């Protein structure tokens, strides 16, 4: 609830398997970002609060922790909109992600090189001010900064927003590599259902602040309702946006 009166999420229940990629799907305003901020405890900064239910991480309730404590436990959020410190260099931005660590400079330098191995473009631009880099490079910087905190789970909000399709594929391929090679779990909020379901293992679809469908990503991708209402496809082939809108009332979960 925001400002004690605006109910945004109601009855949302989901789980993120350790070592998996879970996609949180839905249109603009469905409640995806609010769900991530509720988990990362950033909701309080926007006068929001969780009034019922519980949020568990590795079996412990965490909704009363402050965001910094949650980062120390291994959960960090990459905000929507490629937030970087524009006046700092790319490398300085990355190093801010290690602020909560206490394992020494050598370990931090090793992880910096690991980030550069996944994002070679950032190594080329490491001395450039982040505010003068491209949108794709800023998104890479934001993800790389999260990696510098040595996370076990990353909450990734709309990574494809405003990026060219080729860059979107590149970002998602890196997410997949981090998941498979480094064991990082991802909860990924995304409007681009097609791309998200190709890379995720499981998925949840939100509408009007509640989960309306869930399952394995490959099953959701073949589900006729998902095809029709989120991919613009049906058994008869591709539909126009106008047709998809006119069929909204046929959604089983809104009946």
List the helices and strands and how they pair.
Layout: E1 21-25, H1 32-40, E2 56-57, E3 60-61, H2 67-73, E4 75-78, H3 90-96, H4 105-118, H5 120-124, H6 135-147, E5 153-157, H7 165-182, E6 185-190, H8 193-199, E7 202-207, E8 210-216, H9 217-222, H10 224-230, E9 233-234, E10 237-238, H11 241-246
Helix pairs in contact: 3-6
Features:
2 domains, Rossmann fold, 11 helices, two-stranded antiparallel ribbon
Written account of the structure:
By secondary structure, the chain is of the alpha/beta class. The protein folds into 2 domains: 1-47 and 151-222, P-loop containing nucleotide triphosphate hydrolases (Rossmann fold), CATH 3.40.50; 84-150, no CATH class. The chain is 39% helix and 16% strand. It is built from 11 helices and 10 strands. The chain has helices spanning 32-40, 67-73, 90-96, 105-118, 120-124, 135-147, 165-182, 193-199, 217-222, 224-230, 241-246, and strands spanning 21-25, 56-57, 60-61, 75-78, 153-157, 185-190, 202-207, 210-216, 233-234, 237-238. The strands form 3 sheets. A 6-stranded mixed sheet has the order 4-5-6-1-7-8, with helices on both faces. A hairpin with a 2-residue loop joins β2 and β3. The longest helix is centred in the last third of the chain and has 18 residues, at 165-182. It starts with 20 loop residues before the first strand and ends in a 9-residue tail after the last helix.
